[in-house]
């Protein structure tokens, strides 16, 4: 079944939690055009709607490497303090308008130094923009809380430097650390010293793994580097052998390997991104995306957008696609939302308040109305 407007509207009205959203992957096309005109960066087109379509088409290549090339244009317009703050503010407002009540936005400060900013100046500019976005969203009646994940590029050699940067700004909005970029050939353990430093200072870590590389990457992230969550992790399904039918508990008949068993039984949350995974070749379609069978097998899954601009998507759209094409219902949406909130790097009292005061009452009302 194709996506329907009514499904999106229904889900957009519900509170949601976003754990995996790249700041440089969610810019407004009109903003890109405006900043590029001011700084002299050449774009494929200067028409905002044509540019929106270009990003989506360029990302529909089926490979992660080609997908990542689209970021040359977004990063090019995020090189000064004012532009970084503006992009951050708009990202928060866009998430809030989509019904996201808590989000974690990630970005790599080392990619924003081309016009002379220091790493610390980059972080300060982004945090100022985030707080402004929260303020404007609250004034608009769509309150949202946002934390940032400072990311190191896995192919570079700045992991420790970026880890120290994250720690310096941990009380100003930075809530966690990540590594991102080309996965194959650049294992998480290349940055082991940085992860050890962060663990020693009780700082949360999530790691991109199991997207463009397989089980060894996930195991390295978990067992060697101590990740609390896995960014993507879709290829954990390579350690799951599906059988026919269901078992006595109604679960799909399946044999799990040791790593898949570890991930499921310990509740390691996977930051799954259905549309993005289809674009990069990690899944064939949203209908057949492993997220549904992983959900049914008892894995702890969250639903995410990855890069809203490149995928032409929103969190509401991702959930709507799962409802319309993969057979999800509102109870599944609520369960994934609570799972994401529980795995977030938001302090426990804040998580508890969001769950009890905002999320559960909204879904209880929606489920009652649909009964």
TrEMBL record:
GO molecular function, one term: adenosine deaminase activity
EC number of the protein: 3.5.4.4
Ranges annotated as spanning the membrane: none
Cofactors (names): Zn(2+)
Binding positions for Zn(2+) per the UniProt entry: 20, 22, 208, 306
Domain of life: Bacteria
Keywords assigned by UniProt, alphabetized: Hydrolase, Metal-binding, Nucleotide metabolism, Zinc
Residues in Adenosine deaminase domain copies: 15-359
InterPro entries: A_deaminase, A_deaminase_dom, Ado/ade_deaminase, Metal_Hydrolase
Annotated substrate binding sites: 22, 24, 181
Keyword Zinc: yes
Residues the record marks as active site: 211 (proton donor)
Reaction(s) the record says it catalyses: 2'-deoxyadenosine + H2O + H(+) = 2'-deoxyinosine + NH4(+); adenosine + H2O + H(+) = inosine + NH4(+)
Biological process per Gene Ontology, one example term: inosine biosynthetic process
UniProt keyword annotation of Transcription present: no
Top-level enzyme category: hydrolase
Cofactor annotation remark: Binds 1 zinc ion per subunit.
PANTHER family (UniProt xref): ADENOSINE DEAMINASE
Family statement drawn from the similarity comment of this UniProt entry: Belongs to the metallo-dependent hydrolases superfamily. Adenosine and AMP deaminases family. Adenosine deaminase subfamily.
Functional note: Catalyzes the hydrolytic deamination of adenosine and 2-deoxyadenosine.
Name the UniProt record assigns to this protein: Adenosine deaminase
Protein source organism: Kineococcus rhizosphaerae
